[in-house]
Amino acid sequence: MSEKGAIFLELENSIKNYDKEAAIEAAKKALKMGLDPIEVIEEGLAKGLREVGTRYENGEIFMVELVAAAEAMKSAMKILEPEILKRKSERKVLGKVVLGTVAGDIHDIGKNIVASLLIAAGFEVYDLGTDVPVEKFIEKAKEVKADVIGASALLTTTMLVQKDLAEAIKRSGLDVKYIIGGAAVSPQWAEEIGAAYAQDASSAVEVIKNLIKQR
Amino acid sequence: MITLLDVVERALTGRSCYEREYNNVFSSKLKEVIKEYGIKYDPNTPIPSDNTLADDVFQAALDFYLDVGTYCLDTGRIIKFNESEIKDALKTSPSQLLFGEGMDAKIMVPRTPESKISPWCFLGAGGAPVSSEEVFLKLVEGYASIDIANSITTPALTSVRGMRIRPGSPLEILGTIRTIVLAREALRRAGRPGLPIMNALATATAAVSLNTALHPNYGLRETDGYLIAITAELKTSFDLLNKVCALQSLGYGGICSEYGPVYGGYCGGPEGTVIAAVAGHFMGVLVYRAGWHLIFPIHINYGCNSTPELLWVTSVYAQAISRNTHLLSLHLNYTAAGPCTEMCLYEIAAQRLAAIPSGASGIESLGAAKATHEDYTTPMEPRFAAEVAHAIVGMRRSDANEIVKKLLPKYTNKIANPPLGFKYQECYDTLTGKPSQRCLEIYSKVKKELEDIGLEFKL
Question: Which of A28, A142, B16, B94 fits a 20 to 30 Å CA distance from B293?
């Protein structure tokens, strides 16, 4: 195996082993070797995370491993980002997604899985966390020129904020698709407020891919 | 004794860490204790009779909670307790509580595995949403008319005068007040005004709503039950502690910590979920000074707890708690299928078979169709759950295991795409409150099937 192939494999394995430190070290090594950071992501890190995403969807691993793998990839990406900027190169992503749990709701487990699976699928994800006010979704979507906004709500009382967000998106004039999910949410509710709907984390990725195609 | 002030002090001065770090420590410590104690899920034994397993899970949960503590979302700090504080709190927690008034006053007591003591039956909607005050009234009257109901769990109103309830707004406060006023009226209509309401109150997400509704003018009583949520996993917030503060200051003894550890989330698989479920009891007695506990392990994808893994979790946590403490611990079941379906009844039977012979003090039944669809709740399913719970009092765990193994093939392949069933208005005559012929036929058919595989209905 070439030196280049070996480092790609090291990067891939670091993600598959959910090992943040190893991913950071391998990314530093790759930069020292003068490798193209975009290639480092695509041939190493992303390959590993896609494999982890598949394992999750097949029920072979749980959320903890999925999130750890996504975090390892994000940490390695931080090492690579300055070089990407220096080279003025751009990573081809499937789309940019702004995600969050709506205001008044502090549940984040499902949303964290969606974020990790989206990263694994090749999306750029901006996770705003929990208890996120409507304005923050809009501001971030404007700032990063998002393709999709995703809003999660676990409670029947907080799902109303998803409607507020739908209205705010319309008012903002943003050219962005909107998807909702969460335990309290039904397809009927999504239809009522004019949003796309995902029943669970895995289907969210497919729905978002389709939304991107419609753009 | 750990007081609320001690808890608040630790929330303000405990070790600070990011929530993400807490989540990671939670998961890695779980893995460590699972390995150390050799906890292993056996798919062939959804209801184990292994006392050593139950005791190991209890000890693993104790070690685990000593290490991870509770995360306070507002301060970003960890509230920790030492071993003697945990053990003292378990010792001094009440071993019985009185709920209700008049003819419907009753004492909740603990049970042990295979106990012959009748379980507490906390029946109703499990906080499922309803579309109107009329449906709410009819439903609560229907639940209260179940003669073996010991307490009521109300549905959640979703609107006030046609306006959808918004979190933290006056609509939420008004919705909460309206919920209690209507529930008391429904109980009067059923002729059981003393029956305790024990999910006070699903509409009150924010402390300000519950605390306002505690004014005696609205009808909440000292002898009702008050659910304070543990945010998954083992987290609390000032808003939740504010509810505890109001209840403790008033001297209300019916505080319950309710906790749904998420299978497939930070808990990982069944082994982690069961340890978290036990640790949730420790957090309840220490952080909330809860007198009773309501546990609902929940599947991350399916939103129910009738899968084989979660039946095992239910059985083992109930055994761990009832063999090692005198805590009052009820199990809340969520079904994938909706009302008036055979699948919903099979799920209920399996869930009750997992909880009752394993020593749960009682049941809250139930959140049908995951308690997320408006009006998809009827009095038929909670009645059925209570009848099953009474039928299996004294049953050996090994016998329950064999029956559950016969029930699982009837529904597990449909859990991912379950039948939604029917709305209350489609299942019941809204004028007379009587179930439809279709509902009665399904109920009788499944009861007969259960009798054929070993259940003896006494009620």
Answer: B16
